[in-house]
Amino acid sequence: MKRNYFIIMVIMLMCSSLFSLEFNTPSHTADKESTLIEEDHLFFGKELNFTGKTKDLYFVGEKLVFDGSTSSGLTAFGKTLVINGIVENDCIAGGSTLEINGKIQGTVFAASGEGTLSGDSVIDGTLFIAGGNIKLQGIINGDVYAGSGVLTIDGTINGNVKAGAGEIIITEKGKVNGNFEYSTENKLNESEEQRITGKITYSESGFSKEMRKSEFAQFCSIFTVVVTIIGFISILTTGLLLLLLPCLKNFDYAGSHKKFWQYLLWGLIPFFIYPMAILVSMLLVITIPLGFILLLAALPLIFVTQILGITAFGQYLFRLFKWKCTNRFLYFLFGSVFFILASLIPIINML
């Protein structure tokens, strides 16, 4: 047990030294940071009013008011995000309400229900933005890629625009110095098109007219079948290759009938514990890198254990029917038949 604690401590120290982060997990409602932070700053709490300076700022909480500056990037996720300061590199922001009043250099990735770039905002780089209601009132010196319910351009965009929205509005103050490619149900009027200096390309909304509900449902059905077939082929190919490993040559998958169900029960326990380990790693903040590693490892682990489980089930069936066979490849192929048939049943497929 002491050895396990020692290993965990080593991993935590390695993660903290690798990322050089300063962590802050406040217990009170709001926290104000106005000091100079030479390293990256990670805040995990409820509310932060940041007026200082740091290298990279990572925020996860309810509300962020950013009046400071970063020498590198800003990454923020919360309910309300107000960015008034200076970000000297890329910015990633996602929240229910997003307001940008400051200056950002580099690429901006933004997503929000209500997103506003005020008239004081300046973005020197490419903007990727998605949301319900988006208003671009500032100056954007770069290309814009937007997807929203309503997109309002009330500022100056010095670059090309690609947008898909339910409605696009270009006000009298709005101007696009570049090409404009968009998709909506209704085209821009003549006065709006005159505020665009480049080439205008229009296409109707794909889902509203070009693709009907029946066609879309048929497309989804075909796509599901294709993905399922590819998945089965991948499992069969990878499974046969995996079973070539010398370490699995003499492996007794199923054992007796009783042991098979015991193995199955013990196998389900870590299956439910694993997501909890990822969640705890994320909540502890300092072990966030470990949480991401566990998250990335989940898919290959499930894939490998699925192959071993199919092989064990195949051997179990051979012993159940009292067939004399010791070939693990036949176990896997025979178990795969029942696996494919079971996957066609909705409830069993979910399990």
Defining traits:
22 strands, 351 residues, disordered N terminus, alpha/beta, 14-stranded parallel beta sheet, eight-stranded parallel beta sheet
Describe this structure in words.
This protein is α/β, with parallel strands linked by helices and 351 residues long. Helices cover 39% and strands 32% of the residues. Strands 1, 2, 3, 4, 6, 7, 9, 11, 13, 15, 17, 19, 21 and 22 form a 14-stranded parallel sheet that branches. An eight-stranded parallel sheet has the order 5-8-10-12-14-16-18-20, with no helix packed on it. Helix 2 links the parallel strand 21 and strand 22 (200-204). The longest helix is centred in the last third of the chain and has 33 residues, at 288-320. It starts with a helix and ends with a helix.
Quick synopsis:
The protein is of the alpha/beta class. The chain has helices spanning 2-19, 190-193, 206-210, 213-242, 257-283, 288-320, 328-343, 346-350; strands at 21-24, 30-33, 40-44, 47-50, 53-54, 57-60, 63-66, 69-70, 74-83, 86-87, 91-100, 103-105, 108-117, 122-124, 127-136, 139-140, 144-153, 156-157, 161-170, 175-176, 180-184, 200-204.
Mean pLDDT: 76
- Structural class designation: alpha/beta
- The residue fraction in helices comes out at 25-40%
Strand content: 25-35%
- Secondary-structure element pattern, one letter each: HEEEEEEEEEEEEEEEEEEEEEHEHHHHHH
Which residues form runs of ≥5 with pLDDT under 50? Answer: 1-30, 206-212
Distance between the termini: 34 Å
Q: Tell the overall outline.
A: elongated
**Overall radius of gyration:** 27 Å
Most strands sheet: 14 strands, parallel
Number of DSSP strands? 22
Helix run count? 8
